[in-house]
Specification:
Structural class: alpha+beta
Number of domains: 1
Shape: globular
Distance between the termini: 28 Å
Radius of gyration: 16 Å
Strand content: 5-15%
Helix content: 40-55%
Strand order of the largest sheet: 4-3-5
Number of strands: 5
Number of helices: 6
């Protein structure tokens, strides 16, 4: 089960799609090494469709189709040596949640900027079995939407400098603060 995006509405979806289109036009869209050859080519369509009318769950379903994900991936060890590693069983869910969440945060940041909402609030959007202490520390944090947007646009494929949202599988997202 995916994340609970509290402010996912038609306006946020429209802005998410615009953010995806920005990444496609500038050839900055993240393509995980977990994606199979066909999925590498179809990824922009998959993420756009999920943003337009689906969810991270619908995106994960597309990635669970046989052949959508590689069986193995290359991993670089601290020594610099490259090894072949098995793609995790939950790769479809983790990839779908993390990438959908990034575009959701970007879309919501733009919505907040347009509506002069000065801060977004970090919250737990999904219960996880073993929450990371660094994720727990972020809950309730208020972030500037313009700063968050710049950070997320500049950190394709790596954890953002602000750490919001944190790494894959954290269950953390952003929302418009409750009054």
């Amino acid at each position: 089960m995916g994340l609970n995006y509290e402010d996912l509405d038609e306006e946020t979806r429209r802005l998410m799609v615009e953010e995806i289109e920005i990444d496609i036009a500038s050839d900055k869209i993240y393509r995980s090494s977990y994606l199979g050859q066909r999925s590498q080519g179809n990824w922009p369509d998959y993420i756009t469709e999920a943003a337009r009318s689906g969810s991270d769950d619908s995106l994960a379903r597309q990635l669970r189709v046989p052949g959508a994900l590689n069986q193995t991936t290359q991993r670089r060890l601290a020594t610099g040596r490259v090894i072949s590693a098995k793609v995790p069983n939950n790769a479809a869910e983790v990839l779908a949640e993390s990438e959908f969440n990034r575009y959701y945060a970007r879309g919501l940041s733009r919505k907040a900027i347009q509506n002069e909402i000065p801060r977004l609030q970090v919250y737990r959007a999904k219960r996880v079995m073993n929450p990371r202490p660094e994720s727990e520390e972020k809950i309730g944090l208020l972030v500037d939407p313009a700063t968050l947007l710049i950070d997320l646009r500049g950190s394709i494929g790596v954890e953002p400098a602000l750490g919001v949202p944190p790494g894959p599988g954290s269950g953390i997202s952003v929302r418009i603060p409750k009054r």
